[in-house]
Specification:
This protein is mostly beta strands. The protein has no helices and ten strands. It has a six-stranded mixed sheet with strand order 2-10-9-4-5-6, with no helix packed on it. The radius of gyration is 14 Å and the shape is globular.
Length: 131
């Protein structure tokens, strides 16, 4: 599987905003439910948002509900994560992933988890929230 490419991270003050982007050259992301995950140093990877492929239904972890918005652009084969009202605890490396393990597609469910056999993580994009 092709690794996704995440971008848009950076250093932002508490209360600030960022917009993360995810693409995957050579892979049609439109076919799959897509999710965003994050991992802070010393912590487990956490699913934060998910968007379905068919009707763009969205799901959010409680920790980001009301602050983060996931969207997708079928024409650009891209998925986005708008991060608003950022908090220091949002500091992490953010990853996107299709809920697809190369054979099966998986639904967006809470809690948001990657497919068990998914192993095509990209480099991620670092988000640091600090004053």
């Amino acid at each position: 599987q092709v690794q996704p490419l995440e971008s848009g991270g950076g250093l932002v003050q508490p209360g600030g905003s960022l917009r993360l982007s995810c693409t995957a050259p050579g892979v049609v992301l439109d076919y799959h439910n897509m999710a965003w995950f994050r991992q802070a140093p010393g912590k487990m990877r956490e699913g934060v948002a998910c968007i379905t492929s068919s009707d763009e239904h969205t799901f959010y972890a409680d920790s980001v509900q009301g602050r983060f918005t996931v969207s997708r652009d079928y024409a650009k084969n891209a998925v986005y994560l708008q991060l608003n009202n950022l908090k220091p605890e949002d500091t992490a490396t953010y990853f996107c992933a299709p809920l697809y393990d190369g054979r099966y597609d998986y639904p967006c469910l809470l809690p948001i988890r990657p497919p068990t056999k998914y192993n095509s993580w990209g480099q991620g994009t670092q988000v640091t929230v600090s004053s």
